[in-house]
Amino acid sequence: MELEIDPLDLDMTLGCGQTFRWRRAGDGSWSGPLGERLVTLRMDGGILYVSAKPGGEGVVEDVARHLRAEDDIDRIQLTLSKDRVLGQGIRRLRGLRIVKTDEWECLVSFALATYANIPRISRMIDSLATEYGRRIAPGTHEFPDHARLSKASVRDLRRLGLGYRADYVKGICDSVDAEGLNRMTRMDLTRLREGLKALPGVGDKVADCVSLFGFGRLEAFPIDVWMERALKRLYGQEGTYRRLREFAAERFGPFAGYAQEYMYMNERGMASGQACAFSEQR
DNA sequence: GCCCAGGAGTGTG
DNA sequence: CACACTCATGGG
C-alpha cells in the first residue's frame, strides 16, 4: 500500500525520541506496532510504502494519522523561518515531522523517560509490552492498555528495571485511564497541562511532551536538558522552566512544537559532530 | 570506573 | 519563587 506524504524523513521522525517503539532495519525500513498490527514503512521516491501484519483495513489511515500527514510542512517552515535564528537552517530538517501517538501510551512512555536515555526508554517500554501487552506478531506485543498494565505491582515493575519510575507507572494507573484522558482532549493547553501535572511522575517537561506528541498540541514546547542548552546557546535565554516556556510561546507561537523539535535535533546532532544549522542571535 | 540521561518530588531558605 | 537534594539504573 502507498501513502503520499511529502516531505518525510523516517530516520529523523521515528528515531529521535518522540516515540519509542519503531525499529530501523538495515535496508532503511522502519517497523513498529501501530494499533493492533505490526507495521513496516519504507520511503522511496517521495512515496511511503506501508505493509502490515496482520493485514486489514485502515492501516494507511492509521499511518497517515500517526505521521500527521495533514500537517502543511511548507507553511510551518515558512512561518518559523521568519525567526532569524532558525532562518534557513530548518530546511535541512524539512523531513522531520511531529508524530501523533496514542495518549495513554504517550503518557506512560514519557513518565518512564525521566532521567533516562532513549535506548533505555525503548527497552523499558518493550519490557512492559512483552510482559503485559497482547502479542500481535512474532516477537512484537502491543503496548498494554490501562486494564492490563494495572495488573502490575510496583514490585513487578521494579523487576522489569524501571527503577523509581515503577511508582510513577503504578500511580498513573491508579489515577487515570484512557477514558479520563479522553476527557482532556477538549481542554485548552493550560488546563491540559494542569490535568497532566496532577498525575504522579508528570512535571512540566513530561506534561509538554504528552501535550505535543499524545494530544497533538503543536503549540506545546517541551524543555529538557538539550533544549536548555539550545535556548542558551542560540538565544541567550536561561532561567526557570516557566520563563523559558513563555519565551518560546511568544517567539514561536502556534508551531512552537515544531520549532522545539528542530532545535532538539540540531542540538543533538551537534553533540555527535554535525555542524549547527542555525545562526546564533547577537 | 566514569559521566550522563527527552526529570520529578520533596524539603528548605 | 528559587535552589538543593534524592531517587534507581543502564548506555556510551
Outline the structure in words:
This protein is globular. The protein has 282 residues and is an alpha+beta fold. The strands form two sheets. Strands 1-5-4-3-2 form a five-stranded antiparallel sheet. Helix 4 (103-112) packs antiparallel against helix 11 (204-214), helix 10 crosses helix 11 (204-214) and helix 12 (225-235) crosses helix 14. The chain has helices at 10-14, 59-66, 73-80, 103-112, 118-132, 146-149, 154-159, 165-175, 178-184, 189-197, 204-214, 225-235, 241-252, 256-271; strands at 2-4, 23-24, 30-34, 37-44, 47-53, 135-137, 140-141. The termini are far apart. It folds into three domains: 2-70, TATA-Binding Protein, CATH 3.30.310; 72-94 and 216-282, Endonuclease Iii, domain 2 (Orthogonal Bundle); 103-202, Endonuclease III, domain 1, CATH 1.10.340.30. It contains 14 helices and seven strands. 39% of the residues are buried. A hairpin with a 5-residue loop joins strand 2 (23-24) and strand 3. The chain binds a DNA duplex (13 and 12 nucleotides) through helix 5, helix 8, helix 11 and helix 12.
